[in-house]
Predict the 3D structure of the following.
Amino acid sequence: MKKFIYSFLGTMAGIWLSVLLGGVLIFLTFAVIASQYSSGTVDIQSNSVLRIDLSGSVSDRATTPSFMDVVQDKADDQLSLSELVNAIRTAAKDSNIDGLLLECNGASAGLAQCEEIINAIDEFKKSGKWVWAYSDNYTQSEYFIAVTADSVFLNPVGMVDIHGLSAQTMFFKDLMDKVGVEAQVVKVGTYKSAVEPFLLNSMSEANRRQVEHFTGRIWDNIAKTIAARRHSSIDSVNTWANSFAFAQSPQTYLNEKIIDGLKYRREIDLLVTSKTKTDDPRYVDLKDYCTAITSGNVNIAKEKTDKKIAVLYALGDITESDTEGIASDRLVPQILELADDETIDGLILRVNSGGGSAFASEQIWEALQQFKKQTGKPFYVSMGDMAASGGYYISCGADKIYASPLTLTGSIGIFGIIPNIQPLLKDKLGVNIETVETNTGSFPTITQPMNEQQRQAMQSYVDRGYELFVKRCADGRGMTVDQIKEIAEGRVWDGLSALDNGLVDDLGGLRKTIDDMAAELGTDFSHIKIQEYPELTTQWWEMLMAMDDSSISAALAANTDLTQAALKRLAQRISSMYPLQCRTNYIYFK
């Protein structure tokens, strides 16, 4: 009996302990999430300095963090370009903000994103306020931003990396041969290089030619900007880029006027104190300033808004259905809802995408045309770092298209790729497959090579998709099909070249796009309300309410083995891909 009582009490103690620990875990989770998303007020003192920590990755807009991101305190690892730019421009009018300090701590930003930040800083400087930049080590993209500052400071033992541009592509042909997988490709476009990594071991001559063209023009633009801001010459910038700048002594940077001063971090605080005539630096960090803007706690004159512009973000891969990226089953209903929304006066589609599904791109294109037809309201496109292939498909029907000189766009081409794993199964694993079929018109499978009839059918399928793509572009740009085909063939263009050949209407970032639409609406930026879509879930209780036991378990499981989860997701995405792809090759600048 004693053993039973002891066993019973032990079991009950274990149950109560589990409940207690579970309750503590839930409480701590709520506390962490609540602290991340508390909507407290932030007081901005006079003679404050907006301090922007350029670190982590930069996205075009804020995103809803995952459950594990919040629990692990990683929700702030991503910088929102829209929030950053808005904060800088608001600070220009805020009488409590004296200046701006850029702390360059290893931010990962696209070149067009850098230019958006530069434009915002230029506007800030027009207010007469000062801008300083500081870093222990400047990456090239950070230095590109930093040269906009009045003064560029570097740690006395730091470095500046200026090396020009290079674009890298990985090729997998040898790997696929070793594992026994053949890439069966049908495509249209001499320059359509997205399939080359699976067919070749090096760049084709056509691809190399286009990459040399757009990297050269983009670097010329960057070098021109750096030279102008540093009161130097483009030749000097190229000399820096050719002389392993990262290995030079800090004194050399000073002598060459690459920077303005060598300072330790504490000395920057002393300079700020002297500049603002305060006892201590009154820094306001970006996140706090954004909170102040949201709560209306900034010292700027209130402007009456009489027009509202919807900015709809289309970021990432284009798919038919997905929880991430540009999924047509989510974006199309959003566009149609905006068409029915009588409170908005215009639509701007912000595109940052290398494309994806041709089918999904067509659905989004059609929905945007429906918006134009149903509302008669202006519809513009603002291109980010990339709006190519499917990204251009969904853009081509706009009334006006804006791109940065550093944008990659075009890539008007299409392809289909079907792997053949028969060599893997037969030669590597010893598996033979035989098929019995009643008819001969089946879609190619991955377990056997395409026969000639299947390949011809697939080529016809791809050709039809390409002709539709080209027609959409011709109709949208007011050009003939032949004129589009001369600049199509899957070729990627930089923003300047795209302006020259008629693929875009003007150069400029999102702010320029908004300004021009405001002018068309008979007003200016100060009288425009900007509403961003899709709307984000940012309240911590909304995030928890949207989650169930299975989703929490999935998040925890994925977190325990990130590699396995990532590979599983990649396999799922590949298996569900639409056969025809309007996709450009992934281009990594370094």
Remarks:
- Confidence is low (pLDDT under 50) at residues 17-39.
- Residues 286 and 546 are 28 Å apart (CA to CA).
